[in-house]
Amino acid sequence: MSTSLALAAWIYDAGRKFAGFDRNEVQQELAELRVAVQRHSSENSKLKAENNAAGSRLSIEQTAQQRLGEQVKTLEMENTRLREDLALFEGMVAAERKEGSVAINNFKVEIDKGRMRYRLLLSRGARTGSILGGNQEPEFSGRIDFQLTQGGAADGGMIRLPSNEEIGADNYRVKFRYFQRMEGELALPSGAVPKQIQVRLLEGDKVKATQTVNLNPAG
Hints:
Blueprint: H1 2-18, H2 23-92, E1 102-112, E2 115-124, E3 140-150, E4 158-161, E5 173-176, E6 179-187, E7 194-203, E8 206-214
Antiparallel strand pairs: 1-2, 2-6, 3-4, 3-5, 3-7, 7-8
């Protein structure tokens, strides 16, 4: 029986070889395929790692570029402000400027979604040497308000801001010796389309200085 089984197995293997099937060759090819799959998997993992590293470097470079851009913008704004300050101090001690006179400088306005954002600089003429010396000017005390000329409104009238309820608010009071920066935001009346805005500096009810900004029709 053992001899018969061995003979049958031999005949079976011989038949598969005769038919083109060799177990040893298949096992060898399978082993080679496993090695190739492992090699390809390793190369794929390496390429993914390199791709992730390249993406990280690109992200870092983009972030660094964005930060540099922000720093440049900040420096440009600071440079502009320094130039404005220099012009301000030069104007404060200019020979043609009357001592103690007040002025509004660098008035800027933005209108967005029914609100008005403003920024301005108040200055006062000074005697040469009084800014850093002991003989300083007395403080100026007053307030600011805004007059808006409408465009596209039915009545085309004038709007005065702040409202009567806000006139006494600290945001619009001023008290300075030589200069004071101011910025803030005001709500516009519904439907208002300002085409011109004038800011006024008042001492009591007396207008001491004004400056006007013209806006485009879109506001």
